[in-house]
Design a protein that fits this description.
With 98 residues, the protein is an alpha+beta fold. The chain has helices at residues 8-14, 30-40, 80-83, and strands at 2-5, 19-22, 60-64, 67-68, 89-93.
């Protein structure tokens, strides 16, 4: 089971708690996690990634084992700690201001 932590606005939209658990087939990558998340919670389609390009929305960041992987390839295999469920995959809403 892959553990995914969602930001508040996506939790509210999907009507879930802070953390969801997903079955994700190998290889576990950011793309495969997001595919599984959108399949389980269709209301999230287009909120994390653009509908057409499937690129990450600019105000969201992805973290694996406390490292920002937002600009890495979505097909990069994730660390064992994420795959084994020891650590969660984090989707974090960025904060902007002026």
């Amino acid at each position: 089971m892959i553990r995914v932590i969602l930001p508040f606005h996506l939790r509210t939209l999907a009507k879930v708690g802070a953390e969801v658990a997903l079955d994700v087939a190998d290889p576990v990558t950011p793309r495969s996690i997001l595919d599984a998340l959108e399949a389980r919670y269709p209301v999230l389609e287009g909120t994390i990634r653009d509908h057409d390009t499937h690129k990450r929305r600019p105000m969201l960041r992805f973290y694996a084992c406390e490292e920002d992987i937002s600009h890495d390839s979505p097909d990069t295999p994730l660390p064992h700690a994420i795959v084994s469920g020891q650590e969660p995959f984090l989707i974090v809403g960025a904060i902007a201001g002026g």
